[in-house]
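Lecture 7, part B: from sequences to assemblies.

Below are the input chains for today's worked example.
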Amino acid sequence: MNILTADELTKSFGATAALQGATMSLKRGEILAVMGPSGSGKSTLLHCLAGIFAPDSGSVCFDDIRLDELSDRQRTKLRRTDFGFVFQFGQLVPELTAVDNIALPLLLGGVRRRTAYARAAAWFPRLGLDGLDGRRTGELSGGQAQRVAVGRALVTGPKVLFADEPTGALDSLTGEKVMDLLVDTVHAEGTSVVLVTHDARVAAHADRQVTVRDGKVISAVRV
Amino acid sequence: MNVPTTLLGLLESEPSHGYELKREYDDLFGAHGRALSFGQLYGTLARLERDGQISVYGAEPGDGPDRKRYAITPDGVTQVETWLAEPETPEPMLQATLFVKVVLALLSDRPAAAYLDVQRDAHLDRMRELTAMRKAGPLSRSLLADYGLFHLEADLRWIDVTSARLDQLRNEILR
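Predicted structure of the full complex, as structure tokens:
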């Protein structure tokens, strides 16, 4: 059963058509890799699926909700409650500690401070970051920081995680370890994942892949 | 895979019975249908013995092959050293199967891009299997899986670059 579907999405930025009729679906509990060369439209597709951009035309359905018909405010609320995000870098606040960063989405969602910090702290053993909860994220290694980012994205229990080149800034061995952690954690949590990457080794962690080319999702068909 | 020299390399640490040798070989290198058959094992051991690279002891005449113990000889050690020190001939890429397929598809006006899309998916399917193997360990298996993953990744990069330049290539070879 699908948790997220996109049908015939188009999106232009000025004269540039980023999406030209992109259609795809994400099954519940699935990790789907979205691949494609730079400029193919894969990140725009992710932003439309996550309700960050509204498409110019076409529909995005999350469960039974039409994302493209929601107001900006409603989409923002939905993103906070049901979606999680991991990007290549820049999503952590470097001046805050690791535990502050993971607690932040809970605090923004109205969870009481003590509960938020207790839930955030419980993630550190799972992330392989025992003892680092008080460290400022600006002082962590790239791999450690991405682990914190994974915890921060999943602490609210999102139904869908959107990951855009989550290991793009890491060396290959560190990247593999972060991907192993991400995959194990989302499987344990039952989270569905849209994983945007141009890296085949990262995509190989997914259950399935689609390719975006010239703003469309192409499917490989034997001819 | 150079099976004879690989068996010599396994025998270098200590003499072994045939079935032990096969088990060690299969554990290290036999993933995904590459396990050694007993026929191949004993045929290879017989040739290595004939060539003086292993010697057989611990068996009475008429004993079955599994009663024999095999030990590497100085000639065998030399062979292992030579093989290890010799670089493998790099794959002559211009003759690679995928390249031939693309050129033939373009020459015959068949859908080269679609062939490459299917190949990309097949590569990624295999990479998924290898990723699972890498994750399951132990380290010897993980590193073997990594070897395959890096090579498949290189193929995929070539597939992507070629997919993006098929029109240029068509123009060049049909000129």
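Note for the exam: Residues 4 and 44 of chain B are 6 Å apart (CA to CA). Keep this in mind when comparing with the next example.
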